[in-house]
Amino acid sequence: MAEEADLLGQDSDGDSEEVVLTPAELIDRLEQAWMNEKFAPELLENKSEIVECVMEQLEHMEENLKRAKKGDLKVSIHQMEMERIRFVLSSYLRCRLMKIEKFFPHILEKEKTRREEEPSILSPEEFVFAKEFLANTETYLKDTALKHMPPNLQKVDLMRTDLLSGSVHMLCPPETLERVSLQWSLLLPPRLPLISRPLHLSSERVLIPKPDLDAYVFLRVKERQENILVEPESDEQRDYVIDLEEGSQHLIRYRTVAPLVASGAIQLI
Fold it and tell me: Which superkingdom heads the taxonomic lineage of this protein's source (predicted)?
């Protein structure tokens, strides 16, 4: 991997800016994106440029290995390195797909309401996957449960969202909540994430999981940060401010450091 890779970034004016990376820097960025995605409770911004560049570099490595002498020790070493890179790349993509499957109503609603100048958290392929997963889930639920109910009780809206509380829910008449909940828990296959936790019944909605931004994460500081506001966990506590020194490691709520993860100032570990 002796060639350099070009990435398209954004400068302060919003114009495209080409960033040239060495193969080592490219793999380092892939590993950082992988670790952040693996340990962050929410789906992060997609790194499709990095993924595409890594795949191109893997193709170049395969072409170089075909021209190498058979039996050369370097060939075995390069093959092991290629397998390691493929593992990291595959794990990164699988992690993102698992989050999309688990939180697809929340993610699609967030994608629908984002402003044009904001970057998308989904790649075009991931967006298509999320839409198809939503359609397949609705179809499966209707075919296995709702079609056996009276016509006036067969409507379920997976994309109905309470924007004030941030909760995503299915709208059901009160008299069918227990019946739908039972069918949901018994009939949906284990792969579908909507039953990954018990459904909470109320008079009008059944809650669907969304990312827990108050989960605690380990992190390593890459760039010194000052005056980070830490919100209290209870009413008896007060807000307080901390400084994050470069190279230090912390255990802290994800919500507090989410912007720093997005900017690359810290690394989840």
Answer: Eukaryota
Per the document, the length of the chain is: 269
Burial of 75: CB neighbours in 10 Å, binned 0-12, 13-18, 19+: middle
Do 19 and 47 form a contact (C-beta atoms < 8 A)?
Answer: no
Per DSSP, what are the bridge partners of residue 219?
Answer: 250, 268
Query: What letter would DSSP give residue 119?
Result: P
Distance CA 241, CA 226 (A): 8
Name the residue type at position 123: S
Q: Which two tokens stand for residue 219?
A: 């992190």
CA dist 168 and 109 (Å) reads 9
- Got the DSSP string for 201-251? B-SSEEEE----TT-EEEEEESS-EEEEEE--SSTTS--EEEEE-TT-EEE
50-97 pLDDT, tens digit per residue, is: 999 999 999 998 888 888 777 778 888 889 999 999 999 999 999 999
Question: pTM surpassing 0.85?
Answer: no
70 contact partners, CB below 8 Å, separation of at least 6: none
